[in-house]
Amino acid sequence: MAKGKPLIVALNRLFMDYAPIEQSISIDESMIPYFGRHGCKQFIRGKPIRFGFKSWVMATRLGYCLQFNLYQGRLGNDKQDCGLGESVVYNFADVLQTHFENLKFSLFLDNFFTSVKLLTTLGERRICGTGTVRVNRTGNCNLPNDQYYKKTERGSYNHKIDEANNILAVRWKDNSIVTLLSNEYRIKPLQSAARYFAKEKKKVYIPQPNVVSMYNKYMGGVNQFDNNIATYRISMRRKNGTCQSLCGCSTPQ
Transmembrane ranges (predicted)? Predict the structure, then answer.
């Protein structure tokens, strides 16, 4: 990606210069469609865009892109003491703190990025973090397993708090069992989530921890960014050695 690096750097600089800065920011992956041959092309099953370049995106709640970087494999990880997902978050956090030294940000992440180690380090840097987490990344937190929740009602939850690092771990039963970590939000105040029960054929309200409610509210920034891009996506294809431009002319390559 060396040839495209200057363009990416220039775009990221402009994104930050004109950014409508908000406290709550989401970090997630995004796909750029591409069907040609390239070493960085990815295939992700189940995604709306299955073939293309995978990029890491940091966006506001309404879908404004603050920063993006293309995924180029694990060799692009410049922080050898942490995983790929952690290094992506650290790099984006460095950009935020460089441009806005006096502002405190809340980062919302999915389970690819979140870990106890990540939230501990973010807390030391005065950055809040909330995200879903894989069960094997919860450290020594002994929350009930999936077998326990199969016997409980929808909306039940259990939580533990690491007082030393100010990290909350919670498991909540919805359609599936959700596990979250946060160094900012807590269980209370409890919220209500509307769900439809097929057996009773009616809508009911189940208790929802506040950390889950805040995550649902602010995590969708990158998805909104994808929707914004899809509305105005430019399609250009190369065929028979010519470049089909937007005006319809064919220029030999």
Answer: none
Confidence of residue 177 (pLDDT cuts 50, 70, 90): very high
CA distances from 22 to 38, 107, 177 (A): 36, 11, 30
Cα–Cα dist 159/136, whole Å: 16
Query: H or E segment at 250?
Result: strand 250-252
156, pLDDT greater than 80? yes
Work out the pLDDT band at 225, boundaries 50, 70, 90: very high
Count of H helices and E strands in the chain? 6, 14
Global pTM? 0.86
Structure tokens at 19: 């950014």
Cis-peptide, bond into residue 6, ω within 30° of zero = no
Neighbour count for residue 237 (Cβ, 10 Å): 9
Residue 180 CA to residue 199 CA, distance in Å, equals 29
Six-digit token string for 17: 């210069």
> Which pair of tokens denotes residue 64?
């404004």
Contact predicate 171/177, CB 8 Å: yes
Measured between alpha carbons, how far is residue 246 from residues 32, 209, 222, 250 in Å?
A: 19, 50, 27, 10
In DSSP notation, 20-85 reads: ---SEEEEEEEEEE--S--TTEEE-TTSSS-EEEEEEEEEETT--EEEEEE---GGG---TTS-HH
pLDDT at residue 244 in the model:
42
Q: Residue 128 pLDDT more than 70?
A: yes
